[in-house]
Amino acid sequence: MARPRSEEKRSAILMATIELVAEQGLGAATADVAKRAQVPHGSVFTYFGTKAELLNAVYVELKSELADAILERMPDDRNTRDQLRHLWISWTAWGVSSPTKRRTLAQLSVSDQITEDSRRAAMTFAGRAVEIVRRAASNGALRAVPIAYVGALVETMVGTTMDFMTRDRDNAEVIRDAGFEALWHALN
After folding, report:
1. What is the CB neighbour count within 10 angstroms for residue 89?
2. pLDDT tens-digit profile of 56-104?
């Protein structure tokens, strides 16, 4: 009979993968993941059948964590500007405070190893955030384009803002707020 899987080992493998992908890219070896996670190499494949499955699990995990951070304490007043601002502040805070996770998520987001199932799962987590962006863009110049395009523009703007916030911590709030105003005007 197979031994029960340990959530602790699974988490260690995921965290090691996040760190190594941020440091080395998607070519990081599973042997290095196992070493960093302090588990036997075979354990990586006990928990994740293939490297692609491992990368997909990391992608879904990070997208879920980001969605949780964005949606935590989201104002319920249906004021689209307030909700979008909360989304923006939460997203930039997550990215600036989690640069390793942010770098890994950025690489995974453009990887052809991430399956459509994983991308759909991530969209499920982010559904409420996507709806806020959709409402913000519903009357502006982007109202007639696919929401995926609008989302890509938002991701680019938030990424650029996080880069500059990280580079200039003394002016991080000013940069964050200016980025939000630019986003609001671009969408609305």
Report:
1. 15
2. 999 999 999 999 999 999 988 779 999 999 999 999 999 999 999 999 9
Q: Residue 162 CA to chain centroid, in angstroms?
A: 13
Going by C-alpha positions, the residue among 69, 63, 76 that lies closest to residue 151 is 63
Number of other residues whose CB lies within 10 A of the CB of residue 77? 8
Q: Which residue type is seen at 66?
A: L
Q: Is the dihedral of CA 6, 10, 13, 18 positive or negative?
A: negative
The Cα–Cα gap between 123 and 89 comes to: 20
**CA 49, CA 59: separation in Å to the nearest integer?**
16
In sign, the C-alpha dihedral spanning 131, 135, 141, 146 is positive
Q: Quote the mean pLDDT of the chain.
A: 94
pLDDT value, residue 6: 87
